[in-house]
Amino acid sequence: MSISVKNLNYIYNPGMPGETVALSDVSFDVADGTVLGIIGHTGSGKSTLLQHLNGLIRPTSGEVYIDGECITDGKVKMTDIRRKVGLVFQYPEYQLFEETVRKDVAFGPKNLGLDEEEQEVRVKKAIDLVGLDYEEIKDLSPFELSGGMKRRVAIAGVIAMDPKILILDEPTAGLDPSAHRDILAMVRRIHDEMGIILIFVSHNMADIAEMSDRVMVMSEGKIALEGTPAEVFSQGDKLSAMGLSVPPAREIAELIKSKAPGFVSDALSADEAARDIKHYMEETRG
Known about the structure:
The protein is of the alpha/beta class and 286 residues long. The chain has helices at residues 46-53, 78-84, 101-111, 116-129, 134-137, 147-159, 177-194, 205-211, 229-233, 236-241, 248-259, 270-285, and strands spanning 3-12, 20-30, 35-39, 61-66, 69-70, 85-88, 165-169, 197-201, 214-219, 222-227. The protein folds into 2 domains: 31-59 and 69-239, P-loop containing nucleotide triphosphate hydrolases (Rossmann fold, 3-Layer(aba) Sandwich); 247-286, no CATH class.
């Protein structure tokens, strides 16, 4: 499975007074199994781009290929695209609607025309992948669950479609620290067990640095930076100019560098920063 985006352009309200260029000549590739983190300030084009990747929006010009098949030429059935590409919007729990958890998660597989036995297999697997107990919650109303559990159920509904690409828009938005950590661990487990392409958008730079194989920075509808987390977050001045920051651990490391001669660190996580601080202290004492 792969994604290839070629010269993608999208204009809202073309020819009207409110005409807005949302995407401008965007091109990139995503290899099978990759975790791609996307960052950018509000209005940078992130959400518009995501909606092109599962056919919700047709481009003004340009092409999107999923596993070598062009999904933007109007010839591909939307149901075929949705089988391959699952898109989870921000606050997906607001889209829960069925009377039980099982029915809600089964909604997608049912619409794919799967028989009841296969639906049940998909539902059980999806609920297990998001870290919930099927027997405990299958007959509960999704509206009785906690916020974090509701989000898990909503994501399970997309996983039950068995996508080869999963796109998550701000998966940890609005959650308390405990639920935040749980959702991140869940996302990592889904990626590892399903072996899929995972694309996620977040304003939390620590999450992006921790989770991503590659990072893409959007600004004014264009790709401003792209590379590994280390490559992207080494360019703090460029990120700052776009209204973005680096992970807190990198900020701390840079502050220590400015105060402690000889301190060397490219830390992106708290553990890495602690390791480098410990090493520096041991050297200076010796």
